[in-house]
LPS-assembly protein LptD
Amino acid sequence: MGKRFSRTLPVAHTLMGSLLAGASFTAVAQGQTMSAEALDWQPWGEEEAANQLCRGRYVMPSYRLPAEDNPETVSLEAREVDYAADGEALLRGDVVLRRGNEEVEAERIFLPADRQQVDAEGNIAIRDGRALVRGEQAMLRLNEDRATLGDSHYVLYEQHLRGQASQLEQTGEGEYRLQDASFTTCDPGANSWQLVSSDIRLNQAEGFGTARHARLEVKDVPVFYWPWLRFPIDDRRHTGLLSPSIGFSTDGFDYAQPFYWNIAANHDATITPRWMSDRGLLMNGEYRYLFEESSGIVEGGYLNSDNGGSGGGENRFEGDDRWYVDARHAGRINERSNYRLRYGAASDGRYFDDFGGEFGERERASMERLAQVDYRGQRWQLDARAQGFQRLEDPLSDSDKPFYQLPSLSANANWQFDNGLYTQWRSNATYFWRDVDERRVPEREAATGSRLHLMPAVGWRFERPWGYLEPRTELWNTAYELDYGERDTQRSDSPSRSVALTSIDSGLVFERELALGGRDYRQTLEPRLNYAYVPRTDQSELPDFDSRERAFSWDQLWSAQRFSGTDRVGDLNRLSYGVQSRLLEDASGRDRLSFGVGQSVYFDDRRIDSEGDADTLPDRPEDNPSVNPESRYQATRDRSPLVTRLDWQINDRWSSGAEWLYDDHRERTERSSVDVSYRHPEGHVVNLGYRWEIEGFDPGVLPGDNGFRDYNREEWDLSFAWKASTNIDLIGRYLHDQTNERSLEQLAGVQWNNCCYGLQLVWREWVDDNDTAPINDDFNDRGLFLRFVFRGLGGVGQDADSYFEQTIPGYRPTAL
């Protein structure tokens, strides 16, 4: 047992507190090695190891000396202590020194008479609970911010990082220099990668570090070099290069190098040059700002003269400048009012197909332009906006261009009374405009102008646990002032319309207790009856700014509105009836099974379509091939298809859902879908889906439109993600177009993870539909995508995680 004593020394900073407080830049070994045990490495036990990416963890051992009451007191323990006449002291043999949370171990420690310096030698270990530093020689100036440690190894426990430097020097308060240093996150003895630099400088006060002649080594082979690199050592933002992104595919080589500019505490920017071997240099940029009452972001990209073009073999846009810009700003006026501003534009409709998406998937369908201010009171909600969209499709016909609202003013309110009576007020005034040749679009779409829409509503809802009854009437009053420009027309330039939408919705709820498989349930039986009447009102003089006939569905059984938007109100005289049954698990209240079936009976034909003519029915397809072949039948049938839907949580892992629209008059299916899903607690996912739809099912799309499919649509969709082990994820998808006997998408990939690095390798082949339903302009695209992530350093490659989550429902990728 060594001698032990305590003394209070005038220590300003120890090496541990100053060095490692700034060492969160991440660090680990280079040439020399040190045993895992010496680095405080603790392997996982057999049971723990099965669920861990790493083979173990870094754990600080217990302090060898107890804590003193005064944190400034230095406790010492050594086998031998020699004192000189002038007060010098030499401690030898397993020396331990502790001050507060910091503990130093060494073979020898020399204390001069003035106690201004500590010299330590032999198997030095310095710990403070967050990190470990080991070396052979150390000098600490106790009253100055200076220290030197030679041949050092260091570990950051929580970050799972280790590193090495030939010399570690504290050069001032919070300033450090590491020579011939390296770092990695790999387990001891497994240097799959490391970052090596001849000179690393850390500035703890400023929160950043710099490295000169830095290189990334993989299995001791240099693969990347930075002459100078600046990096953060804490959570503060700092100007400097970020981790690069490197992609390889059948199109060629893709390299992006982001540069981050920390302009001020509330301003920053990222500039990203991106070199694509098949296209050229694309410059991307993003600027962000934050104020007390507002914030915003401006982003964009520019490619001078695209070398590759787009659209399959057509090579569209080859030689063209490709660009986009998107600026957003939002703020608060007061507690009840906010405002938003946005402007987005792109050079063409395929910009994001080619540059902005993951694995060839586009991220945006449109670019918004908006100026909006709103008010949210206790009763009234007000909204004023000017809004438009650039639709990102190519080719884009004039008919498909959306209207701008310049401006649109809305005022809405609700009144609720104790006896169940309620009233509502909805109102909107909008000026519609778009830049098209009015002579090249359908006549009803050629106008621009203003629309005033007033919609008061009154209703009464009687509700009890056993059922409800709700009659409701809406009065739609709409008036226009129109301009047809150079279009010759006999249509009125100031048409109007007034029509009432009346409905009565009712339902009953029956319940019973049920025991199945040893579990208690509540089963419900919920019959429902809904009547809706909308008189036939001529709307042939009205323009078509924002309306489209809705495809039939379960929700449409109970809705009095056959069209979206305001320009069309479909005539309706129908009674819908249906029943739904649910199985609720008493213990959790969770729906285990929900099944519903319903149908509508029509008492009149539906004459109002997108043309708005109240006197005529759609042409027969044999007389006019330009009409939707289903449109006349849908308008004259005396009952809707039977709508059946099912949601079934079979057990904790298996679930299923289905929808079936069956025409009991023609005895044929109009649309159906079935989905089966498997979810395993360990993360395994399997999805199988089937979809079928008759030609022309969507009544709002006419032959010749880009969205019209002149074939029955039948598709199979199989996707899976399987966690083969803690380290390996296998993913795949196959989407098959049964109608045209072709594959729409094939995807196979593997993701490997450990605590040192991650790798993602994905092969994908898909059909690009060129933004149209017809298949004659489709073309195939394919790619092999590779992504690396060096943990503690950053990623190299394209980020595919969000795409996988979209295409494989239920999958949550292990974070790379």
